Amino acid sequence: MRPDRDLYFMEVAHVIRKRSTCTRGSVGAVAVMDRRIIATGYNGSPPGAPHCTELGCLVSANHHEAGCQRTLHAEANLIAWAARTGQATLGATLYCTHGPCLNCAKLILSAGFSKLLYGVPYRLSEGIVLISDYIEVEQFDQEYVQALERRHEAPLTAAEEQGEEALPTECQTAEGQAYGESLSRAANEWYKK
Description:
Elements: H1 5-16, E1 28-33, E2 36-42, H2 52-55, H3 74-85, E3 93-98, H4 102-110, E4 115-120, H5 126-132, E5 136-139, H6 142-152, H7 158-161, H8 174-192
Parallel strand pairs: 3-4, 4-5
Antiparallel strand pairs: 1-2, 1-3
Helix pairs in contact: 4-5
């Protein structure tokens, strides 16, 4: 069965979240304009900075509610990438595996998104409370979200459990690795344009 666009883009967000490097949780986000993906983001460290998977999360004992200070949230990462690459987000729709925190809600509003569709609520509700006053907000059916999360869960490999980055299974053969490297080169060339 062909999924409708909302389900399709939410599933893409769940695939994107697999790139997350924060060990406290993985979140994925997809920005869509005119039924096309214009930017993606996941929670992780800024480019070039060490990741939580390398050094552990940076959480203040005095301000635990602030969360990990080492990473950018998926929404902030997406908005930064869109700005960096010149992708306008004014009027776009944002699909996110989780609801926004307060700071991300302010960024979403400032970036001009017109609609937010999310899966799991963020642990603090003030982001959704704020954003709901200004743009259309829709939470996905929780049974569907749980099914997506189960589908996209992958057991950790031995290397990942030790904090090492492992190649996906299909890239572990010489042929698969060559194919993966050619995809990476093609993607890098495309991003340079």
